Fold:
Amino acid sequence: MSGHGRARERAAWQTIDSGQLLLIATAGLFVVVAIAHVAAVGLRQPNIAIIFGVLIALGELFRMVMPGNREVAPIASAGAMGYALLVGVGPEGAPPDARLGVVAADHSALQVVAVTAVGMLIGSLPHIAVGRSPRPDAMARRLFNVAVVALCFRPVLSFDLPWQLVLAVMGVVVIASCFTDVLIAAVIRAEAVRARFGIALRDEAEAKMALCAATSATAMLIAVATTAMGEAALLIFTVPILVTQFAFRRYAGIRATYLQTVRALSRVTEVGGYVETGHSRRVSQLAVAMGRELGMSEEELLELEYAALMHDIGQLSLGDPIPGGATVLASPAEQRRIAELGAEVIKQTGVLDRVAHIVQLSSHPYRTGREARADDPSGDSAGADRPVPPPLAGRIIKVANAYDDLVGDSSDRDRGAAVLERLRLDSAAEYDPTVVEALSRVVDRRPRQ
Amino acid sequence: MRGLPLAAWAYVCGVVALAAGLIATSSFADIDWDQLAVLALLFLICDSAPARLNVARARVSMSFAASLASVVLLGPSGAALLGFCAVVTGQRFFAPVKRVFNGGQLALCGFIAGTVFELLGGDRFHPEQARWVENVIGPFLGALVTFVLVNLTLMGGVLLLARQATPRELLHESGRLAVGCLGYGMVGLLIAGLWPRVGPFAAVLVLLPLLIARWAMDQAYVQQQAHAATLAALCQAVETKDYYTRGHSERVSRGSVMIAQEIGMRADRVEAIRYAGMLHDVGKLGVPTKVLQKNGPMTEEEFAAIQLHPMRGLEIVREIGFLDEALAGIMHHHEKMNGRGYPMGLAGDEIPEFARVIAVADAFDSMTSTRSYRPARSVDEAVAELRRCMGDHFDPEIVEAFLRALDRDPWVPPDPVVLPDDDVVETTRQDHDDPSAPLRVAGDEVRPSDEVRR
Structure:
């Protein structure tokens, strides 16, 4: 358990989980076999292989990180899959009776793997040179995906199917490759971030499908265009994926800046002396870990993170900081006022209404009984009779906030255990017991010091 | 379109009549009608969902791809027919006269571009021949540029005659539109090249990634709006405690952008200075409330606490992936040209440009706002004060640029502050931004920075 927690101190290769290791080993085996094969039989149609290799290397050079720390290289993937799907290499020099009137592409599936591997390696060298460590799992996944496409499609070519049918097979293969890609990514993610598999699968599908569709369509475009028009077509037919890459890079950049902004500005409460240094960040880290433990999806986790970062922002409206800044020690009415003020601030954005809702209810006790509602002026009489627990995200923040207020940045395990015990005693009325248990599991996994 | 000037009516009728005449007199003997029908369908689908560009009146749609594909595949008469399909476009809120004009002008564009393509010899090659791409790219580019030019000219003509735009605005907008048009037009070549092999499926392969790219761009735009709104709201939260400085960040941001645009900064730098202006005082939260509320001279320690606020601000925003320039702007916005500012005492050109811009907007807003120790000054008084401090405190070029911008785009000072009626309200007694009322520090008869001018 604690092995994962100590990941920070270890080298990158030591943090790899078993599923990733299996994937990397499989991909490595593919590469070894492929390169041995190519070395034995020689490179077929070397000029085409080199052009695609260059495209893959360039694509790998311009890889990017999508929200959720997902590394993708759409240009490289589209190029490699296009090479795997290549039927012919253009009409120039074709014998008069040739199929489709073009020279057939006669490279094997293993040559596709070898060219892709070499291209990816060359494209990664500049990244390594500037000190960015490569992500072996992401690269292995991309390579594996290409290998699957090549191994499924190349043998089909030897059957001499009619052109329409070849196109249909191409379509089926790229769609299938999208699904395997999402599946593998979900397995790895479920293991890496300790999410449940079903939820990881949905998250991956949501995060990847658009880009996958664009990559697959461009792979087919490249394959068909190069078949019909020769390698010159490669230059202009990569334009759609270039545009797509640009758009997604922009999107990912803005998403990242947004999160950075909220993270940074949530620190104003610290600079103003309202809360302890690092409080917001620690609460948000705890809350996200707990949310994942409780099976929240990526989108909900993002809202939870924003809400956790900004849960104390309401204190800015107070004239003077609460002594010690620990809201858990303030009176319930005061806690509620801070939450209301914070929600008010967040509502001002006009876009984070759900986050505001979470913050507003994060001060409410788990069992909102009659006496807890009595001092709530907004509670209408109909709702006052029925105890409605606050949303899960709100309950998580309440627990995480209380834990961090009482423990602070101390890493003393005894103190943590004592605080947990205290939260357990208060649970059922003040805190949600399942959330407290999730906290205890998260705290348990943390590194011993 | 009601109340269209007579000249505009004549122009519209002329364009439509010319297009109709061209279509009527050309021969359609060797046109592949199936191909035309499929392209027309594609054209209408694309045209009904045009891409948003940040240009108010005009919109670039992917139908450009279909039009240019028809130029290659069908020749001038086919392209003209296809253009005329725009009459039945699915875009709502299109008055009939607009539809007819749009159809007519696109038909003209298609016909002329198709003629150029043939004149340059593009029609002698077939996609299934060897070296098609190399042979056809030249004529295609010629046809594409012609198409876009004719299109923009015809559209510009009607806007001018209908007096909906001035020539200067048109030129400015056309430049940006042309890039989008050329880009989408290039896609037409891809569709035309693949058409003989895979038919309409070519359009799916080409347009799917582009549609997804557009979706991603829309998402990015939404995120950017959300980001800006969140930033503004959080900045507002920081200044909410002090009744007198509410809205200050927002206004400094606006003033900085006015100056930045006036001195011709690039769009991405303007964007960065917008944020830098918004965040410039975020570190003030680190200054104890006592100090800000103090009435009378400050001790050296208290003055030091105030001088530290740009550094505190930097500390908070350092991790945001901004341009470094924005950070420098936040850190140095209290430097003076004569080197007597804080925190570093930089002078003249050593002060980053962003900081010099923010300093002017900051001081100006402070002077035109109400403070507890004085009412708001008028814009003219504040301008006079800025002029007086030019050279010593502010960069003269920046001040001049700001004054020019003010002439064009008048400043709206904030409403006078109305304090709530209870006595518990605490107000600040000092404003570190106000150049006309410098902070007084005990033991110093005159602040060193002020002796120069007093």
Notes: The longest helix of chain B spans residues 201-239.
